[in-house]
Amino acid sequence: MLSDEEIRQDLAQLKEIVAAHKAPGAELAVHTEVIDGLELPVFTNVPANLGKLYELGLQDPDLPFLVYQNERFSFGEAIDLSRRLGRVLLENYGIARGDRVAICGRNSTEWCISYMAITSIGAIVVPMNSWWKGPELEYGLRDSGSRLVIADLTRFHAIEPYIAELGVEVILIKPGSTDDAKHYPEFFKLARSVEPLSQAELDACDVQPDQEASIMYTSGSTGEPKGVLSSHRAIVSALYTWKFVREINEILRPELKEENPKWQPALLANVPLFHVTGSHAQFLSSFVYLRKFVMMYKWDAEEALSLIEKERISILHGVPTMTWEVMHSSKFDKTDLSSLRAVQSGGAPRPPEHLSMMTRKFPEKALPGLGYGLTETNAIAAIISGKFYLSRPNSTGRPSPPLTEVKIVDEAGNTLANEEIGEICIKGPTIMKGYWNKPDATAEVIKDGWFHTGDIGKLDELGFLIILDRAKDIVIRGGENIGCAEVEYAIHEHPAVSEASVYGIPDQRLGEIPCATVMLKPDRSLDQSELKQFLESRLAAFKIPQYIFFQHEQLPRIASGKIAKKSLRQQTIAMLRDDFPEDD
Known about the structure:
With about 575 residues, the protein is α/β, with parallel strands linked by helices. Helices cover about 35% and strands about 25% of the residues. It is built from 20 helices and 28 strands. The longest helix is centred in the middle third of the chain and has 21 residues, at about 230-250. The chain has a 9-stranded mixed beta sheet with strand order 4-3-12-11-13-14-15-16-17, with helices on both faces. Strands 18, 19, 21, 22 and 23 form a 5-stranded antiparallel beta sheet that branches.
């Protein structure tokens, strides 16, 4: 742990390191460009688009890359398959620049190869939330205007009733021996039926840095998920921001750099690829480091520990809940964790007591880290690790150099001084182009190039960002954003419901869980199990409130006439206090 004076000294040294590391002629040099009318700092020497990023894998094509259960693909094999699928998309389906192609399934090798193929040819990839139910998936496909969906069987059956109306074509992931395989092509069979696109053919696609690359859906406070449209430059800039931060930290603390590592870098892919954490920080970043990418079918702490030992995982990276569950597993003390070099988290705050436990239980070389970012910023805003993190456990770090700015503003938009509390705003080339087909919603959050997050916080006296609250009406359950309005709308569809309020309460494992207080219509009755069953066909399981309280009286109001959600939240926390034991 560092004193404030030691932190000041390190920050002064780090400032000099950053200046040298981004100077003209450096590998990660920075210059300015005008993008959509804004003058922004950008990397000079990074890949111009995602297709060029994938070509980094050809530096060592035989190196292991994608690992999923019994499947293993080298970098060369994955790139070859993505180029074959690229030809299928262009020639069999007529996918052209700017067309949307959705991926709808759990983490798999097919998911990764699809993402590579779609973005390599200049189409826009639409990673769909695999936890969504049929109506939610139908909304995403319709809103994005996807022409083609690459889906696993579970998601295919969820969207099957809507396929004809949407006019969307389907490629199946692992159809097995089902009848569906007779009607829709199977992924690998289709990809292997053609020759891969040549380098000249890929270059002819002429994918420009600021061309649209992806639409990722995020839950907000308005009820309907919004499609976050990002460019190739924004995504690549995020990947190389993480590389920049890692390198300057290793210069500041040379002991962190592992010379002649015993094993290939390897990351445990333990969050869904439809999240920016999964797609960017885990999957796409693996090209930068020629890193082995080991996927899990679904999260399981015991299976994670087995894979860490078996695959010599160097980075355990996910939401804080996952670290907590690993540390509490009966297998933890019996597992060889010597390969770990970092235990990082994003997507949700990590309670300080978790950090204290991590320093006691994980190997000393497995440095703790935490990042803060949003889908709209391609996961970039602030980052903290090592001794800085141990010294500032309530912080999510300083603004990520060298491209990102963070400021705090008041309700009038005035920039506040350090230690003053207001809304967190972020600026840089990783900011989204906007919400898909929602110009008004875009204008509400992007002003003069600054993205207004809706999160409330402050920069402390040393410039470390501390998040205090959220202005947006969302619950973050284990890293999953839940728009309260969306859940309230679904509850209101029940004929016995008069009004409803959804809010989050603290949970030791997940950070927050959704709860609801519901006013019933006169002479109507309803219980938790009935309402939860009603919601199962309308909402992904993680969005369904864990606790639901019913009453026939009107829900309490604040002076403006709005429901007193904070009051209901505090009542519920007090009522369930016994369910929140102190951490052991």
